[in-house]
Write a structure and sequence with these properties.
single chain, Endonuclease Iii, domain 2, 2 domains, 11 helices, elongated
């Protein structure tokens, strides 16, 4: 997978932070259907900061948790202007002070926009890294993140995040993973364990 990048469509850090907030518990495909119209109505942070809740809600109501996300998006834009001069910060701790931005979202922004060695752990990354044996008994996304960044070369971390997500989305799916198509089956802990169990 030489080209490994986010499947969210964006043209600026502002657009990416909006898309990533919308993507929580929602598919990238759904987000990419919502954002073109959203960015026509709210092309800049300033536009979103003064947006009425109802108007934001109406544009995003087809994604999950539109009430919370509408509030978060407006609050994020307002704080981005009041505290960061409208510039999306590159620091994970400062990013997390924005409404709707948790550690995973902050890591996505830092790695995708600023190419920082930040590992965003979503459900795909969590599952795939455990199955492959890249993490061992990580009970939380943060524990998985710490194990992954400890052993992956720093320069590969931004790309490795996408490798794991895309692998989980298309090959190592939660149910019925496509192990017969997987080029990593030979080193996958989960697959090898399954082979041993079928031989017994």
């Amino acid at each position: 997978m030489p080209v490994a990048e986010t499947e969210l469509v964006f043209e600026s850090p502002y657009q990416l932070i909006v898309a990533v907030i919308l993507s929580a518990q929602c598919t990238d495909k759904r987000v990419n259907l919502i954002t073109p119209e959203f960015f026509k109505v709210f092309p800049k942070t300033e536009d979103l900061a003064k947006a009425p809740f109802e108007e934001v809600f109406e544009l995003i109501k087809s994604c999950s948790y539109p009430n919370n996300k509408a509030r978060h998006l407006i609050g994020m834009a307002q704080k981005l202007l009041s505290e960061f001069g409208g510039i999306v910060p590159d620091d994970i701790e400062r990013l997390q002070t924005l409404p709707g931005v948790g550690r995973k979202t902050a890591n996505v922004i830092a790695s995708v926009v600023y190419n920082k060695p930040a590992m965003a752990v979503d459900t795909h990354v969590f599952r795939v890294s455990e199955r492959l044996g890249l993490t061992k008994n990580a009970k939380t996304p943060l524990a998985a993140e710490k194990q992954l960044v400890k052993y992956l070369p720093e320069e590969l971390i931004p790309k490795a995040h996408h490798w794991l997500i895309l692998h989980g989305r298309y090959v190592c799916t939660a149910r019925n993973p496509h192990c017969h198509e997987c080029g990593l089956a030979w080193l996958c802990d989960w697959y090898q364990k399954g082979l041993k169990e079928t031989k017994q």
